[in-house]
Structures
1.
Amino acid sequence: MGGAIASGVLVLCALVAFGSEEPVLAPAPAFDAPKEKGELQTAVLAGGCFWGVEGVYEHVRGVRSVESGYAGGNKADAQYDIVSGGDTGHAESVRIVFDPAELTYGEILRIFFSVVHDPTQFNKQGPDHGKQYRSNIFYANDMQREIATKYIAQLEAAKIYAGPIVTRLDPLKAFYPAEAYHQNFLERNPTYPYIVYNDLPKIRALEKEFPDMYRQQTTKS
């Protein structure tokens, strides 16, 4: 990502600046779970630097909490300095806890494929390169797997992207929260150059493309 603040030290990772990708409005999923009352549910997604992914979903109605972390690798390697090497199997991910009466898993994926990231970029996202920045859906159960699989097929058939979708589908084995300084990074650092250039445009795109699902107040407010 553009940088990380650890122990008061600013570590710059990207030497070249890139703007946020232009959003591509994906159609609503043809197959989805119904909105109904029940226990809170969890979605785990990876779409580049977790700062921006977390920041977007903090503004989505029906989301109760969002946490940055790591998924896809082992517990011993779930540390930013190690994951940044790109060889741990981990992807920078977010865990989204949502109310199924207000928000469906399919709607979460629609936002993911529309404004969160570019699903055609392989092992990179914008200025960030490496397997840890891959596009990845970690499904928690068979229903999530089916919704994601059918939605990707629907999007491929719609041909709305310039290239093929490279998003991986993997079962969620574990999610490991990232270090405290990564949590709620966008809201705490709205003027940080990487955030301004790469991530704030995603928040604006969410508000424009999904006004009924956008909320000004975040889950951390």
Note: Confidence is low (pLDDT under 50) at residues 2-19.
2.
Amino acid sequence: MGFELERVLYETEDFLRRNLASRSAREAQKRRAQRKLQEFLRRLRRAGLIFVGLLIAMVAYSAIVAPIGFLTWVVAIPTIFLLAFMSLFFGKSRTEEHVSPPAQPARLEELAVRVEDGLVDRRRELPGRALPAADAIVSRLNEIQPHLASLDQGSTLAGDARRLIGQHLPRLIDTYLDLPPSARAPGSESSERLTESLGIVAQELDHLLEQCCRDRHLSFDTQNRFIETRYREDDGLKGS
């Protein structure tokens, strides 16, 4: 009876953790919605430019080369509008979401965005007790993105970041989710090991963020020491 009650409580905890989005998950979803809106506005702007550009081209042709008849305009304007509308669906979305790394190498900051979105999408498939570590990873991926953008893409640090973010983390999630459902049950050995591994990844991202910001920390420390040395014992700044 005691074992059965413990199992029910564990499964209830797991269910609540997976279905109640944390603050990190909500913020990640909000960032993704903003990226989707920006992508839509970019495509809408491109469609508008295509529509206006083709109209200008037709007007220029009519004025310079040969007049365009009324019937031609009647057919051409809906055709131009249709082409502009279809352009909304051309090209690959900049906000394509998946955990697995893309076939073509992406810049580190783009890779971090994709992996962050993919992890949020698959959050409910992870064991409940692994979610705090997963949420920490999501937060760190967002925090580290601007620093990855300024990182030398050919540096050793960039290579370490690419392997951790684009290879090791996605493979960990993918191989876990490939396990049969019985092996991923709440409290299973595989779930416990995933929780531990995600905790290690979160710690490694903390270390990576610290390395990326090392120069900024050094600059702050230098300015801090200067202020302390220059002004702490400066009697000229003290009130009379």
Note: The chain is about 70% helix and 0% strand.
3.
Amino acid sequence: MADIVINIMDVAQPYAALCPTLASGVLAVLAGTNRPLTGREVARLVGRHSHSGVREVLNRLTEHGLVERQEAGRALLYTLNRDHLAAPAVDVLAGMRMELLNRLRQSIAGWDVPPVHVSLFGSAARGEGNTESDIDLFIVRPSDISEDDNHWCSQIDRLAADVLRWTGNHAGIAEVAEPEIDRLERDQPPILAELRSDAITLSGPEVVELLDARR
């Protein structure tokens, strides 16, 4: 049987799976706003690339008509040409991270045993990381459900398998029972600071509300 190859998603730039060039980052930045941006602003938002490289990409995309350029004094301003035939494809690529959040929320909403709380945290929540990063999920189990409950475990396993299938990245699942939140507050493990600063709630109350309610 042939090996199954799963492409890994760049957590910081998920669109790179389809378009692994600087142009994908430039287009994602322009797709994320209707405000005209200077080349320097685009370079700053793309990150990890030189201004000259971004300028070359902008010039090429302008030649193809996918990006519009206008003069504003001594500056050049760039916007995505949303009437271009390729613009819908750009929006799809730029929206891949939001699509992941939507799929996670929909999957968890269909669980037979509802969780107390689920949130995305770590590099995926911050929009950082790379193809080796996990999709970190913090899951709070109801106090009346044991950790080896068949229905509960099957939900967790199915979610982890879905994450791998959707992105190619493994799910890093940090699971606690609701009463254990008190221990987190007492012990202050590193994950707690990440949750407070970066967590994106997928189900249940906001993570800060959940933690503060236990005080």
Note: The chain has two domains: 14-93, 96-213.
4.
Amino acid sequence: MTKQKILVVDDEKAILELVRYNLLREGFAVTTVEDGEKALESIRAHPPELIVLDLMLPGIDGLEVCRQLKQDASTRQIPIVMLTAKGEESDIVIGLELGADDYIPKPFSPRVLIARIKAVLRRHKSAPARESDDIKIGELVLRPGRAEVLCQDQKVELTATEFRILHLLMRKPGWVFTRSQIVEAARGENYYVTDRAVDVQIVGLRHKLGECGKLIETVRGIGYRFKD
């Protein structure tokens, strides 16, 4: 079986070696580089299955690397897991909105990093749910064709905005959505959703979903995701 290729980009040699060692133990093929320019060259010459990308890089920083990759049709489908230092919430939001798939704050647990990498790879391997497909996660069922939601086999009455938010989250479980991304998905013809209103909508949604509401996780300072 061909090993999945991971590119790790970080300017700290100790972190590169730590991540490399743990990925090799899990059976991945690993390449490491220490700056953004070399990362872009490596990715275009030998596209990996996933990129672990530090945001704080010399020269071309991680956000610019992410931006260039997501604007290029030949590389935009490669999943990116960002490595970030604490206090970089605004950069995390920008990275997610540029198209990064997940993030790991430093200092990090190698076990958590491996788990998140595997989760991102699983999501990219499986075909995303179509807009019209029924979605079942745990005891929660969403039926787009009927605009219907069931929790523990009981129908849940949602507003159109709540339904759109829940549909967005459930179509990609595990993905972190920023508030502005949720705004775009929830914006209806007669209702304008603001970043602050997203939090209100989520509170109402969780309340209506009862026990199933626990599946919606808050990602502090960033937004929300549905448990995978």
Note: Residues 5-125 form a domain with the Rossmann fold fold (CATH 3.40.50.2300).
